[in-house]
Batch of 2 targets.
Target 1
Amino acid sequence: MQPENAVLKNKKIVVVGGSSGIGYAVAQKAMNAGAQVVIASRSNKRLSTAARQLGERVQREVVDASNEQSVEDFFRRVGHFDHLVVTIKPQLPSGRFLENDVDAAITAFDAKFWGQYRLAKHGAQYIRQNGSITFTSGIASRRGYLGHSAVSAMNAATEALAKAIAIELAPIRVNTVCPGFVDTEPPTSGRAQHVKTLSPTLPLNRLGAASEIADAYLYLFANSYSTGTVVVVDGGAIC
Ligand SMILES: NC(=O)c1ccc[n+]([C@@H]2O[C@H](COP(=O)([O-])OP(=O)(O)OC[C@H]3O[C@@H](n4cnc5c(N)ncnc54)[C@H](OP(=O)(O)O)[C@@H]3O)[C@@H](O)[C@H]2O)c1
C-alpha cells in the first residue's frame, strides 16, 4: 500500500470503465491514495471480478453509457462525488475506411463519444466544489493510423467537447487524457499483436502500461489550474 495522498483523502472518485484496463488502474491508484472509489461498467460479472481484486472498500455500479436513462439512474444512486473519470472502450472498428461497416462505426461512436457526453451532462450536477471531469481520447486524435478512421474521429470529438464544456461547467474542471498505445489486452489478441508492431516506431521503444496512463488522471485531479486541456501520454508517438 502506498502512502495516502492528501489531495484524494476522503474524496469520492467515479470511474466509468473501471472494471478493466486504464480505468481499473485509475481506481487502484486513487484507492491507494486514500480515495473512496466507485467503479462502473455494463457487466456486473466484470465489475465483481475487479472489485474482488481492488478490495472491499470499492463500490461497484452497473451503467450503460449508451443509454441515457441508465446514466441518469446511475448518478442518482451514486449521489454527490468529487471527480468523474470516463475510460469507456467499445468494440472499435479497425478495418480500412472503405471497407468499414458504417453502422458499427456509429455504434462505437455512440458509446465512446456520446457516452462521455451523457455522463458529463448528467453527472455535472452531482460534482462537489473543486471537482473535475476527465475524459479519455487516444493518440489517433492527432496522428493518422491505418484502420483508425472512426477511432480518430471519436477521439478528436472527445477532446473538442472537453474544451467547450470546460467553459460552461467552470469552476468544474474538464480535461482529457490522451493515451498512446497501451499494453491492456491479452498478448494473444489480434489487437495486441498489431499494436506490438508499433513499439519500434516509438522513441521509448515499448507500449505504455495502464498504470503509466493512470498517473495522468491523478495529476488532473490534483492540479486546480488545469481545465480544457489534453494530457498526452504516448511514449513519444507524436514526436
Ligand atoms: N488500450 C489502449 O491501447 C488505448 C490507446 C488509446 C486510447 N485508449 C482509450 O482508453 C480508454 C480505456 O481503454 P482500455 O484499453 O483501458 O479499455 P478496456 O480495458 O477495454 O476497458 C473498457 C471499459 O469500458 C467499459 N465499457 C465499455 N462500453 C461501456 C458502456 N457502453 N457503458 C459503460 N461502460 C462501458 C468496459 O466494461 P463493460 O464491458 O463491463 O461495460 C470496461 O470497463 C478507451 O477510451 C480507449 O479508447 C486506449
Note: The first helix runs from residue 21 to 32.
Target 2
Amino acid sequence: MENILSIKNLSKKFGGLIAIDNFSIDLERGQIVGIVGDNGAGKSTLIKMISGVYKPSNGEIFFKGNRIDILGPAKRRDLGIEVIYQDLSLADNLNTYVNIFMGREKKKKFLGFIDILDEKYMEEESKKILSMLSISIPSLKEEVALLSGGQRQSIAIARTIYWDAELLIMDEPTAALGVEETGKVYSLIRKLKEEGVTIIIISHNINEIYNVVDRFVILKNGKLISNCKKSKTSIDSVISMIVSGKEA
Ligand SMILES: Nc1ncnc2c1ncn2[C@@H]1O[C@H](COP(=O)(O)OP(=O)(O)O)[C@@H](O)[C@H]1O
Ligand SMILES: [Mg+2]
C-alpha cells in the first residue's frame, strides 16, 4: 500500500515548550486513523503542521511522496489535504451551495462583462455531491444556521469531497452532536473511506471512535506513544496508554 502521508522527525516549539517532540509516522492510503491523547498532548499542533497553519521547528512532511512542509496552506488544499476544524468554518447566514463553493465561487458573465455568481450551477453541483454522499438537506437555498449540527457537519464534509480531498482531517467531528446525528456522521465517514479518502479523526472519545477507526495514534506530551492497529489493541489499553504514556 502506498503511504499517503509520511512525517519525519517533526518537532514544534513554542518558546521553551515542546508541543510536538520528534514525531515520525507513515500512514497508508484509505485508512481511518484516530489521533488520541489528553488535552495538551499536541493533537491540534500536529494537524496544524500538516495543514500548513504552523511551520515546523524541525522535520519534514511528505504527501504522496512530495515534500509539503515548505508549502502554504492554500497549496496543500489544492493537493488534496483538507481540515475540518470544530467550528466547521461555515458561513451561517449563507445557504448550503454557497457554503460548498465558498472561496471558489463559480462566476458567469452577466451582460458579457459583470461577474455574477452562477447560482444554478452551484446548486446543481451541490445536489450531486450531497446525493452521492447520501446527505439529505431539505432546501439548499436555506441558510445553514437553520440546519442541525449533523447536517452542518455533513455540509462541511461534502465541501471537502467536492474539492477532491484525499486526506481529510477532522477535529472532534461529533463534539456538538447528539447520538443519532453522531451515528450519521460516522456512516458518512465510512462512506468516504469506501471512496478511497484517507481520514484522520481527532477525538477524546475513544469509545465512540473505536468502531470506525483502523488505527490509533496515541500522543502524550508531544511524543508518539503508539501507532497501533485497532485489531491489535482494545479500548482499555488505548486508554491506559493515553494515561501512562507507555505502549501497552
Ligand atoms: N500557539 C501556541 N502558543 C504557545 N503554546 C501553544 C500554542 N498552541 C499550543 N500550545 C501548547 O502546546 C501544547 C500542545 O497543545 P495542543 O496541540 O493544542 O494540544 P491538544 O490539541 O492535544 O489539546 C500545549 O501545552 C499547549 O499549551
Ligand atoms: Mg486540540
Note: Residues 179-194 form the longest helix (16 residues).
